Amino acid sequence: MNPTGNTILITGGGTGIGRGLAEAFHRDGNQVIIAGRRRLVLETTARANPGMRHLTVDVENLDDTRRFGAAVEAEFPALNVLINGAGIMKSENLKLGVEDFAVAEQTVGINLLGTFRITAALMPLLLAQPKATIMTVSSGLAFVPIHTNPSYCATKAAIHSWTQSLRYQLRDTSVEVLEIAPPYVQTELTGRFQAEDPNAMPLADYINETMALFKSPFESGEILVDRVRSRRFAERDGKYDEFFEQWNGYAAKRQVERAAKGYEASRRPAG
Description:
This protein is 46% helix and 12% strand.
């Protein structure tokens, strides 16, 4: 995709990585529309970036995504880039059985089905453009999961798989399909602890490196900063077991530290 001159829609664009990308693309001369469920968050981000637009959408609701798709087509007929960034990441205790099952249902509903719904709602508009791009947001956790967030990791692995199928189905169209797989980044995805964790990649550094990659050729359609590459290719490089033990040990330690400091995990969707 061209780095400038686009009309770009970013779900989950009011916070975290979504906001970081929205602001970077906005600075580079693109028309950016951020979308999500929380109007106040969207309004705050748009006010901080004059010219940025915003629309509300509930990605868990098929009827609302249909409404949203029609609204986008009417107001932004030149839309040529979709970034599916809406997502949540909550801890789960699978030993609790159905008592904690609502977390899994919501995670799948937003992270996975939300991506499916938004993409489907905007597909006719994107296919009508001379050149367009669909981006999904997976994670390094799609390739080496952590036990504290099993549904999140599973949805990101599914996004990776689905993106490959989507890319192949659209291979003879004007729509390219890219996948962004972030590492552990300083955002409030899981709460303030993550935003302040020195072991996480600073958000500004992640955005800067990612934006630079948009100006370079992509490896298999994947946008990978250096910090995530070892995790992405852990199985290929024969280091999966090593990474799994390392990251799950760290996740367990982090969970204890977060509890000791009185941090609460985020219970709300991005955007």
